[in-house]
Amino acid sequence: MSAAAAPPPRIRIFVDADACPVKAEIYRVADRYRLAVFVVSNSLIAIPSSTLIERVVVEAGPDVADGWIADRAHAGDIVVTSDVPLAARCVRAGAEVLGPAGRRHDTASIGMTLATRNLMEDLRSAGQVTGGPRPFAQKDRSAFLNALDAAVARLRKAGFAAG
């Protein structure tokens, strides 16, 4: 008698939620594909009533939410964050990582992204005016939705289960 094959690992989405502007878009995509979502924050954030969505409130402190996500994210997961050091940790763990404007972080790009972030931080701490990010726009939401759908498609093609 042969053993039954184990089901493929399921795709999960981890959201660095405190300042995430695309939570509604994540919830829509998760519902469409029936994906589990972990909304991780340092404070209570409203979430839709859904068995797919779990709110995780971590204790206050620098990088506590980041640590929670990084400790759990691995290949087959999608992480949504604008935090570059967290993105780097999750890329190293094999997760698909997206910024809220749809930028995909991967092993080929994360090193330069992290270096640029560190340079800008050094310039700001030295008193240089570097400006801030441009305002979040509707085209950013559209780019994010496209990137999230593409990430789910890549993971499904790689053998991870959705729904």
Q: Strands across the major sheet, in which order?
A: 3-2-1-4-5-6
Structural class: alpha/beta
Main beta sheet = 6 strands, mixed
Beta content: 15-25%
Q: What number is the mean pLDDT? A: 89
Can you count the beta strands?
A: 6
What's the alpha carbon Rg, rounded to whole Å? 17 Å
Q: Count of helical segments?
A: 5
End-to-end distance: 29 Å
What ranges have pLDDT less than 50 throughout 5 or more consecutive residues?
A: none
* CATH C-level label: Alpha Beta
Fold and architecture overview:
- The protein is of the alpha/beta class.
- It has a single domain (12-157), classed as Rossmann fold (3-Layer(aba) Sandwich), CATH 3.40.50.
- It contains five helices and six strands; from the N terminus they run βαββαβαββαα.
- α1 links the parallel β1 and β2 (36-41).
- α1 runs parallel beside α5 (138-157) and α3 runs antiparallel to α4.
- The radius of gyration is 17 Å and the shape is globular.
- The mean pLDDT is 89.
Write the layout of secondary structure elements.
Elements: E1 12-16, H1 23-33, E2 36-41, E3 53-57, H2 64-72, E4 77-80, H3 84-92, E5 96-98, E6 104-105, H4 110-125, H5 138-157
Parallel strand pairs: 1-2, 1-4, 2-3, 4-5
Antiparallel strand pairs: 5-6
Helix pairs in contact: 1-5, 3-4
Q: What characteristics describe this protein?
A:
single chain, 163 residues, alpha/beta, Rossmann fold, six-stranded mixed beta sheet, 5 helices
